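Worked example 2:
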Amino acid sequence: MLLLALDTTAHLGGIALARNGEVLQAVTIHAPGGHGSVIYQNINALLDIYNVKLQDIDCYAGASGPGSFTGIRVGLSVAKALAEVHGKPVVPVSNLAALAFAGAGRYRAPVLDARRGEIYSAVYDDQARAVVDEVVSPWEKFLRLIGDREITFVSMDEKLFEAEGAAPLPPASNGLRRTVMVTTPLVAAVAELAALSYASGAGLPPEAVDANYVRRPEAELKWKEPV
């Protein structure tokens, strides 16, 4: 099974090609001017390396957000268009879920800067199940929600956790909190998680795929113990 994953949700995005759940290659794409003008040439370059044609792809995956609203739409539009042309399914993957998947520990809290004095976050367990729903929230409110539970914070931006960052993290208390920085492109985790979802039958027709903006003023934070 060949899967092509796209992430255009931030200036630093990427594409990845996976075969039977294993990422063959993940390419980082820095596109401060937007991914729309460079995404197709990067897709073609990656597929040429492995002598793969677009019609050979069995499933497309797209990072569905949260992130740049415009960036989210670019990646999902490309994935949906290619899937529509070739009659293939699409698996949308939450950026937060992908970050958590790439992390470690029993409970993982992916963190993204949502601006406006807020962060995007959630808590997932080591089986990729959400135990705190994805939310946009002030950092201190999110910390109060998770309390003293042992949490691994996961982010691609180390500065988020500094004193002047969006998610300042005090020194670990009794070893209960630590950070794990994801150094591989996020799109690699998007591809791996999408492959698992596809194998479980979670592929969607292109027209059923939607963005995951998360930013909802009425969002309520609730802890749910995994079953």
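The longest strand covers residues 22-30. Strands lie at 2-7, 12-19, 22-30, 59-63, 90-93, 107-115, 118-125, 130-137, 151-155, 177-181.
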